[in-house]
Amino acid sequence: MKTLLIVYHSRTGGSRQMAEAAADAARAEGEVEVRLLEAEGAGHDDVLGADGYLFVGPENLAAMSGELKAFFDRSYYPVLGRIEGRPYALMVCAGSDGENAVRQIVRIATGWRLKAVAEPIIVCTHAQTPEEILAPKIIPSADLAACAALRPALAARLALGVY
User: Fold this and answer.
1) Are 57 and 93 in contact (CB under 8 A)?
2) Which residues, other chains included, contact 92 with Cβ-Cβ below 8 Å and sequence gap of 6+?
3) Which residue from 1, 63, 92, 101 has the least number of CB within 10 angstroms?
């Protein structure tokens, strides 16, 4: 059975909800083994042990979160040259934009020579004040459905050996 690794970081719960929605959808059909790991505990062995990836995190100060960046820092060189062509997708929870976090993750995935299999999903919470930014997030069901909809592009095709 193929393995889908979902690595996420979430400080206020938004990215966690998005990652869990995608994980639940991928698990529902029993097509792939899903490993849902917080970025702080994930490393290069997890990357090497997976057949496809979903990276999920918030945009903090117009960049990917430090914890997600630390995961990439720990994992990048130990897997370089060993995972080319594997599929990936990404999701970002942002207060206003999310594009820069997407660009940063895409650059890392490009360096690894991963294959993007879906357009990035950016969920915008419109949190703009310090209180809104720091508050626990509740992602609307329509956005969670979009996260779950990655299953056909990633988990189902991974299980079929398309990638």
Assistant:
1) yes
2) 15, 56, 57, 58, 59, 64, 98, 101, 102, 105, 120, 121, 122, 123
3) 1
Total domains present in the chain: 1
Q: Do residues 148 and 21 lie in contact, with contact meaning Cβ atoms separated by under 8 Å?
A: yes
- Strands annotated E in the chain: 3-8, 33-38, 52-60, 63-64, 87-94, 115-116, 121-124
> For the chain, what's the residue count?
163
Phi (first) and psi of residue 60, to 5 degrees: -120, 125
Q: What is the pLDDT of residues 91-106, one digit of tens each?
A: 999 999 999 999 999 9
Q: At 108, is the secondary structure helix, strand, or coil? A: helix
Give the structural domain span for 144.
3-160
Pairwise CA distance, residues 90 & 135, whole Å: 23
> Any idea what the CATH number is for the domain that residue 134 is in?
3.40.50.360
pLDDT beyond 90 at 153? no
Predicted TM-score (pTM) of this structure: 0.96
Task: Give how far the C-alpha of residue 133 lies from the chain's centroid of Cα atoms, to the nearest Å.
Answer: 20
